[in-house]
Design brief:
The complex is a heterotrimer of chains A (158), B (601) and C (90). Chain A is an alpha+beta fold and 158 residues long. Chain A has a single domain (3-157), classed as Alpha-Beta Plaits, CATH 3.30.70. Chain A has five helices and eight strands. Chain A has helices spanning 17-27, 60-64, 91-95, 121-125, 141-157, and strands at residues 3-7, 38-42, 47-51, 70-72, 79-81, 102-104, 109-111, 131-135. Chain B is an alpha+beta fold. The longest helix of chain B has 21 residues, at 520-540. Chain B starts with 6 loop residues before the first strand and ends with a helix. Chain C has helices at residues 8-13, 27-38, 40-46, and strands at residues 2-5, 17-19, 47-48, 51-52, 57-60, 63-64, 80-84. In chain C, helix 2 (27-38) packs antiparallel against helix 3 (40-46). Chain C is globular and about 30 Å long. The chains are: A alpha+beta (158), B alpha+beta (601), C alpha+beta (90). At the A-B interface, helix 1 of A face helix 7, strand 13, strand 14 and strand 15 of B.
């Protein structure tokens, strides 16, 4: 069992508090461009989705990492980056199909979610629990249950 | 500097020159930022008697020191200029992510001067500032302009722009940012249009820093907890939005109806927040760094009024609803969408149509004037059409675009315009709620509720209950609320945070963010300084004590029915006391002593 | 006597209005009856330790009971009572 960041776009209000908490945690200043999570908003529809590293099991970023700076921790299930080994070749940036590894020009380093070492600040600050830090095997239980409740109510009204 | 970026960007559209200046730290401390700092620059640089639509007027986009941080719900900015609707100092406040982006690009304020020879837009990417041709955008509505600009600059750039209403210098034109947020009031969009400036697009890669990181995070956590745990700020606004107020104002008999002829609307519930949540609401939205999420992402499926977007807020629902005696929430929401798309202030638009409807119902405005449009109370289709015509500048819309005061004056009845300083009053009847009436009458930007929101104690009982019908203590209450709001607006903070926190928390946030030691008293004093500076500007602009009044209906025509039956506004009784509390003379002029204390002399 | 509910209280009571005839003698009696009937999701907003919670806004004929006689405000058959949970807007 591991933990994962569960994204609930239906709850996201687009406030970007997650970006701010992330970048304050990692950079000590409010510089959203260096945040490891970014919120994408479609203003016409009023719909927002936060995106960050999904901690893949077969992670492309680990496969392409020559100096083995990017590795998967089998115990926690997280993909970890050892900055001291990173040579800045940006192969991981090229490889990530989600675009969730980025290169920061200002600090000349790779930006990737490290789940704040197992206590993600983005989930903590999220005012609507659109981001939740949950056990991965249970991650969809709430969603399933919510939908089951909707079914229940629908049947109850018949 | 911390909190502040310490830099001002100045663009002269006449000559096409761009330069940056350092922000004076002492001025920043005294006037905080946003509304306060913008006003200070206007006071120092612009002749208050200037024609607001001339190149000599300036247009200032100003963020606050907390803008761009995660101080809860504090990512806002102000547009400060001389308002063409009012002739007074204008500061229109907006949320979204545009203000923070300006800070990340490195600037606390953007000052726009002069007038471009042809339509242009500004593209600000950190230090690179370009004045670009906007011929291809002229005439486009707000959503399309925003999308086009994101395509030709950067997908993650933030756009503030005007719609067709601002281009034509409609006096009720707004400036829209992030497609759905509005710097709505006083006609700031017309000033932007007068400068041939279609949009300001900004992208910043820099940082906003705070002086004491650990202390700031602590202050933010405490403030956020207070807001979340407060029964009002915590969940109510997210569930129902601001429009939840329709029913309470109606129930106490303070919901202006039919252009303020009555104060109760039988079917008000049909346009209230509960109905919106049940029908049009898709999900709550939050501005940048917001934890309250009062925004409404909505959708109308009724083919007649089909659309999607944001809103309505309470004032909007009231303006297009009860004030026009309309109870069709689809139509009201559609009117809101049109205002956002054409770039118009929903309060002034609603109030102006209500005024037109009264003129029409009295036979003063005829079918000839409206080109056949049956602009009578209760006609939802005509109301929506009137909004559209104002946006496109056709037919009767040309008259409506000037606001209700000029409209009613044109037909010989200025007394039928429900305005203060020519700006439409919002959704609280000043006869039924005495304090808010005093706030309207004395407000530096005319009819406005958000700069002295005494509705909180007078109706909602927050933080304590005050008797809405009493006048005792109201001048003091109004002055305190006006001062506190002037200060908090200037930080970049949202008024709704005060449903959980007050001056103490703001002082702590400001101190830890900027490193400048603010106390609650010093913070409120800064607000008082800002209020008095706005007053000085207005006096120099030619406004005086005679402008501190409500429409004659408010003092002369008692509310005809409902729980507040018989009430009139007692503003004339309260005014001398208000001036005294303010430290102003009998003519409403700040005394030498007052200015000395505020370091404004 | 008619009672109107708003916002969260519509969820708690599952209705927007109801009639009570004959009416209880005072607001206090009414609130205690309603609290018993609709449970904690209703009661938490209106009463605390038997007194007005100062959270809900309770109007009798459009007048806030805090400006009348509070829980002792008398009720008659033609009264209209409106009960709001704490709310804000602007």
């Amino acid at each position: 069992m591991g933990m994962m960041l569960m994204i609930h776009p239906d709850r996201c209000t687009g406030c970007r508090n997650c970006e701010l908490a992330c970048v304050m945690e990692h950079e000590g200043a409010f510089r959203p461009k260096a945040s490891r999570v970014h919120v994408y908003t479609w203003e016409r529809e009023g719909f927002s989705v936060p995106m960050m590293c999904q901690q893949c099991k077969d992670a492309a970023c680990t496969t392409v990492c020559m100096p083995k700076a990017m590795t998967r921790n089998r115990e926690t299930g997280q993909v970890e980056l050892d900055q001291s080994l990173c040579i800045g070749c940006k192969m991981c940036v090229q490889a990530c199909p989600f675009g969730c590894v980025a290169w920061d020009l200002a600090t000349a380093k790779i930006l990737k979610c490290d789940t704040c070492g197992g206590d993600p600040s983005c989930a903590e600050i999220c005012p609507t629990a659109a981001l939740e830090w949950v056990e991965d095997t249970l991650s969809t239980r709430t969603r399933k249950q919510t939908f089951a409740a909707k079914l229940k109510n629908a049947f109850a009204e018949v | 500097m911390h909190g502040w970026t310490g830099k001002i960007l100045r663009v002269d559209l006449t000559s096409g020159t761009v330069r940056t200046e350092a922000l004076n730290p002492a001025t920043a401390r005294a006037f905080i930022g946003a509304r306060g700092l913008g006003t200070k620059i206007m006071y120092d640089e612009v002749d208050p008697t200037v024609d607001p639509l001339s190149p000599a007027n300036k247009l200032i986009f100003a963020a606050g020191p907390l803008t761009g941080t995660f101080a809860p719900s504090m990512g806002r900015f102000d547009v400060v200029t001389k308002g063409p609707l009012t002739g007074a100092i204008a500061a229109s406040n907006s949320g979204g992510a545009w203000g923070p982006e300006l800070k990340y690009a490195g600037y606390d304020l953007l000052i726009v001067e002069g007038r471009a020879a042809k339509p242009v837009y500004l593209w600000i990417e950190d230090d690179a500032v370009a004045i670009r041709d906007a011929a291809h955008l002229w005439g486009k509505d707000v959503p399309e302009t925003t999308e086009r600009l994101n395509e030709e600059t950067a997908a993650d750039a933030k756009v503030a722009c005007i719609g067709p209403a601002g281009e034509r210098m409609a006096l009720i034109a707004s400036i829209m940012n992030d497609m759905q947020r509005a710097a709505g009031r006083s006609g700031v969009g017309a000033v932007m249009g007068s400068k041939n400036l279609k949009a300001v697009v900004v992208r910043g890669t820099g940082a906003v820093t705070v002086a004491d990181r650990e202390a700031f995070v602590g202050a933010v956590t405490r403030a956020a907890t207070k807001i979340k745990e407060h029964p009002v700020g915590g969940t109510g606004l997210r569930l129902y939005g601001t429009n939840v107020l329709v029913n309470i104002l109606n129930s106490v008999g303070g919901l202006p109806t039919g252009n303020f002829q009555e104060a109760r609307f039988e079917t008000a519930d049909k346009v209230g927040g509960e109905s919106l949540a049940a029908h049009q609401l898709q999900r709550p939205k939050g501005c940048f760094a917001c934890i309250i999420s009062c925004g409404r992402a909505t959708k109308v499926t009724n083919p007649k009024y089909k659309g999607r977007g944001e809103g309505p807020e309470y004032e909007t629902a009231w303006g297009f609803g009860p004030d026009c005696r309309i109870d069709d929430l689809d139509a009201v929401t559609k009117a809101n969408y049109l205002c956002n798309e054409y770039g118009m202030d929903t309060i002034s638009m609603g109030g102006t149509i209500a005024c037109a409807m009264e003129l029409f119902s009295r036979g003063l405005l005829t079918r000839e004037d409206t080109a056949g449009l049956e602009l009578d109370f209760g006609n939802a289709e005509a109301m929506v059409e009137a909004v559209r015509l104002t946006g496109t500048g056709e037919g009767v819309g040309v008259l409506l675009a000037e606001g209700s005061y000029r409209l009613a004056s044109r037909f010989g009845h200025p007394e039928l315009s429900m305005t203060v300083k020519k700006q439409e009053m919002p959704a609280y009847d000043p006869r039924a709620v005495q304090g808010i009436g005093l706030n309207y009458a004395t407000n530096n930007r005319g009819g406005c509720h958000v700069r002295g929101y005494t509705i909180s104690p007078e109706i909602l009982g927050v933080p304590v209950k005050a008797d809405k019908d009493a006048i005792d203590g109201k001048p003091e209450l109004v002055v305190l609320f006006q001062n506190l709001t002037a200060a908090l607006d200037s930080t970049g903070g949202c008024l709704f945070t005060t449903f959980g926190i007050g001056a103490d928390e703001f002082a702590e946030l400001m101190t830890t963010a900027t490193g400048v030691p603010y106390t609650a008293d010093r913070f409120i004093r800064a607000g008082e300084r800002i209020w008095n500076l706005e007053r000085l500007w207005n006096l120099k602009a030619g406004l005086s004590a005679v402008d501190d009044t409500l429409p004659p209906r408010m003092t002369g025509e008692p509310i005809p029915a409902g729980p507040s039956k018989g009430a009139v506004s007692r503003v004339p009784e309260m005014m001398p006391l208000y001036y005294a509390v303010r430290g102003w003379d009998g003519e409403g002029v700040p005394t030498r002593e007052t200015l000395d204390v505020l370091e404004l002399a | 006597m008619q009672i109107h509910y708003f916002a969260l209280l519509r969820t708690a009571t599952r209705r927007s209005r109801e009639n009570r005839d004959p009416p209880p003698p005072t607001v206090g009696h009414l609130l205690r009856d309603l609290a018993a009937e609709y449970g904690p999701e209703f009661a938490r907003w209106v009463l605390r330790d038997g007194a007005l919670s100062n959270l809900a806004i309770i109007l009798v004929d459009g007048r806030d009971v805090r400006g009348l006689q509070g829980l002792d405000t008398p009720l008659t058959a033609d009264c209209e009572v409106s009960i709001f949970p704490p709310l804000a807007g602007g």
